[in-house]
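Researcher: Let's run the pair from yesterday's discussion. Sequence first, then tokens, for each.
Model: Starting with the first of the pair.
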Amino acid sequence: MKKKITITVSIIVLILLSVFIYKGTNGNKKQGIQVKTAKVQRGEIKSYLNTTAVIKSKNVKQYFGTQSKVIKVNVKVGDAVKKGDILVSYDLMDLKNTVKQAEIQYNNAILQQKDLKNQKKSIQDKKNELDSQINQIENSANKQDLAKLPEIKNAKNSIQDISEEKIKQAENSVELAKLNYESAKSKLSSMNENIVADFDGVVTDLNVVEGSMGNPAQPAVVVQALNNLKAVISLGKFDAAKIEIGQEAEVKIGENVVKGKVSFIDPVAKKDMGVTGSNVSLNAEIDLSAPAKNATIDFDVDANILLAKKENVLKVPAETLITDKAGKNIVYIVSDGKVQEKEVKTGIQSELEVEIKDGLNEGDKVILNPNASIKNGVMVKEASEEAK
């Protein structure tokens, strides 16, 4: 009897379990896979190039001094300076003396040339006078005068003439002295006694010490305007093709976002050699439209450059789009509780949204972040409907 009851109970349990599994299976089939969706909407979409920039001053000047003794340094790094302020002073007395000496040598050369020419003229005048006397005696019948003729001829012949070579040497000496004088003057005029600020700014580098000799190969002082800044970006060959002068940009400095525009693009790329090989890049500049608070020169900042902007276009969240093995852009929509695969043609894209040019209609429900289980014809349940 007990055996019969046990068998009966077992059969009932199996039947109930089968019913439970059947209902659960049918229930899941009816309910489908739970998904999150978003509606295809119309609106504005902006495409940005997100990159890194370096803050630089738009007004920077390196002041080079002279190879002379530094007699006064009026600033230190970090000092604010005004246009016209004297930053560094040099002792140019040696150069001034050199110019004076060259001027004296030039004047002396002119005097020597003039004296030599005067001597040549005097000699020629004397010879002409003796020739005149010889001519008179030779035409004279006076025997006493004729007796003087040999003496006069000997006197003429004994006169040492000044050669053209000596005259030419004197001219060369004048030219050489003039060149030295002009060179000394030019050198002095190119070297200022004082380095004077051309604009208001801050001293950001200083390489001179009072009492030392200036090094003309190294900037003595660097002044930068800290209230007139720009952001410099370095672009690879693919991003460089997207950038144009006049494009709008945003630069994030700390918590502040400063608007700007692309104002300059280098005409040629530059090649830098690194450990792993060469790196070719193209620099571009963004002018900032307003003073940037808390901006520090040479610090990196985030920069976003507006590449394209469209209004009243169909758009979907970027996470709805996948690319299949054939390279087609695919989205999945929910239609009558089932998945429907759609190939779409895309346009511009932002970080969050993608323009849809063809393949979808406004109001279509697209599945967010579709996984491998989302396939054409699969039953799905929207998360928003489950909440109801």
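Model: Moving on to the second of the pair.
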Amino acid sequence: MGKILMKGNEAIGEAAIRAGCLNYFAYPITPQSEVAEYLARRMPEVNGVFLQGESEVAVGYMIFGASACGERVFTTSSSPGVSLMSEAISYIAGAQCPAVFVNIIRGGPGLGGILPSQADYFQATKGGGHGDYRLLVMAPASVQEAVEMVMKAFPLAEKYRNPVMILGDGLIGQMMEPVEFPEDLRTEPSNKDEWATNGMSTRGDDKQNLVKSLYLDPTALNDHNLLLKSKYDQMKKEEVLYEPVNMDTDYKALIVSYGTMSRVCKSAVAMLKEEGIEVGMIRPQTLFPFPEKAIADAAEKSSCKIILSIEMSMGQMVEDVERCVKGKLPVSWYGKCGGDVPSPEEIMDVVKERI
């Protein structure tokens, strides 16, 4: 199958179907509503289910119910909508249920604006709800990568029995790019009979499966949280993804950037190279687990004088970059968060000012 020109939001919906997810519950919010519009038509064509909830709070618990039954399920939303789902996401993580959440980020805080932003980094990577839980967080930089990450997200959610969050933004959702869909992954989740509440008669088993996140005994709750932590530690060992750019040079500065902003930074790195200024770049593709070792190793380069975290936010990922660098080099932040995306020329000027 060749490439198809598709809007990002629609490609995300199609990718979920091709990953074997036939359950989509959502509530409309700009700039991701086209996912629901697309799946309202497509899900009936593939014997799937699309249900618009009465609110994002309701959608979160619809996701919990379906995932507890062992069904592949996902939703898409945007910043304030994900905030309303945060309690349910904590329950889903605590109950060890697989589910996929896609956040096409808009500006904030509050209602903010509908233009692209990356200001939900803390919400996604630090656990936006209550308790000691983490999400596996992926950040595409193109519509093609969004498709691939959506299709990978479902088996990853099932591998860890944990929610996976994909962070896009208004540009990823609204832009049109040619995409090629990988081979369909329409298989049944492999291990759901071991834990899901899908009926003893269905499983042919007398054992009851109980999905819960309530542990009233303090020792039991501590043990449960240690079990969850072991999964997050495993993610750190096995699931880190990043793209190195121009890292085989004697770069004077290192840029760390992700998603849409990284596309601009990549152009700036190429343009600076033409002027004889070498700049390296690391693009995290997973925000949790974060490419800690790659950034720490990059900070050891003798030619490197500064590390810049460039984000469409008021400075959130920069804290993780600083944590990786551990004071070995100065870490600087640059960004905007009103919906304007810095230009390559603007990034070039920032780099020249700070090296």
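Researcher: Give me one sentence on the second I can quote.
Model: Residues 272 and 311 are 19 Å apart (CA to CA).
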